[in-house]
Amino acid sequence: MCAFAKKTTLTALLLLAAVAQAYAHIGSGTVSSFHSGFMHPLSGLDHMTVMVAVGLWGSLKGSKAIWAWPLAFVAVMMLGSMLGMAQMPLPLVEPGILASVVVLGLMVALAIDLPIAAGIAIICLFALFHGHAHGAEAPDNAGGFEYMAGFALATALLHATGIGVGLGLGLRFRRLARAAGGVCAALGAGLILGMI
């Protein structure tokens, strides 16, 4: 691992430790319908930026990452949601969600070129946090599964948006895609510091 990657990883871990008291999900309301599940990722800045960042990062990497990274996110997010619905404890969920905004934004902004398996590992860790938080919020009935189906579809569409933007910009405008990652990381830092 190069010195830059080590510094980036250390910074991300320090940010994760610093946000132990932060909460990305405050409030809930009804979460039992497909429609409310579909709308949830579209109403939260943390969700929208992370989902688009996964798609952008996959498009920058190219190859199998274009479909493997978003697919891994959705699959593990659903696993996390089942754990949350079952009230299985998972430490550092909210700090992990906030850290995901910064870390995945940095992955795009810096065009970090990891092996596909390493990217999957990072994405799956954050997907577990996102899924767990929303599974824990879902009611303990069949409607909760409707909610998660809506959430999964909206997540996949946000990933597709990131992929579409990344591929649409192409190599010539790669800096714009990376700038979007920088915006994502900055938004995450603002959420962590309570400025947004």
What's the arrangement of secondary structure elements?
Elements: H1 3-18, H2 34-43, H3 45-61, H4 65-85, H5 93-109, H6 116-137, H7 142-169, H8 174-192
Helix pairs in contact: 1-5, 2-3, 2-7, 3-4, 3-5, 3-7, 3-8, 4-6, 4-7, 5-6, 5-8
Q: Please indicate the percent range of residues in DSSP E strands (runs of 2 or more).
A: under 5%
Biggest beta sheet summary: none
Could you say how many structural domains there are in total?
1
How many helices does DSSP assign? Answer: 8
> What is the succession of H and E elements?
HHHHHHHH
**Helical residues, percent:** over 70%
Gyration radius, rounded: 16 Å
Q: Assign an overall shape.
A: globular
Give the N-to-C terminal Cα separation: 33 Å
Q: What's the overall average pLDDT, rounded?
A: 82
The secondary-structure class comes to mainly alpha
Low-confidence stretches: 4-29
Number of DSSP E strands: 0
